[in-house]
Amino acid sequence: MRSGLTRSALILAAAVAAACASDAGSVTGGNPGNSDFKLTRVGGNAVPALDSGDSVAIGTGGVVEYREIYLERGSLTFSQDSQRFESVLHYAQYAVTTGTDGQRHLDLRGVVDFEDHGVVTHDAQGNLLLQSDLEPSVVHVATADSDGYTVQYHFPNVTFALVLAFRPEVR
Q: Which of 40, 79, 119, 132 is the most buried (most CB within 10 A)?
């Protein structure tokens, strides 16, 4: 019983399920004083953004539960010298039920943070290339825009990028 899951969603769902089982110009877009950015949009949608949904078997009794995974928040940070980056994407998995009143109810089943860090370089177009220390073949591409960055965030073994918008962190 699938509801249109993408390969990326399946990989993320597996990672979240594993985490749940264990209970689980310048680099700063012309503003050198601000190197902390927060996730504001995922593929054009506001955060939190639905990543995927699927029915899963629970235990050995054949009970099936519908679950949804949301990308709830994230951050992108550049180091003082603009040569390093760190990103964190926070996912949460919920069991979804419908009450007698017809309202959807979400019951948290687990969370997982995908953390990445690495080296920042530039390409010929001036984009930032964020090469992962964790998986050197993975390079995220950050394009400066009017007030932050749009990042094509790549996952290992996934052929397409997740498009994320990061804006300056307001403190």
A: 132
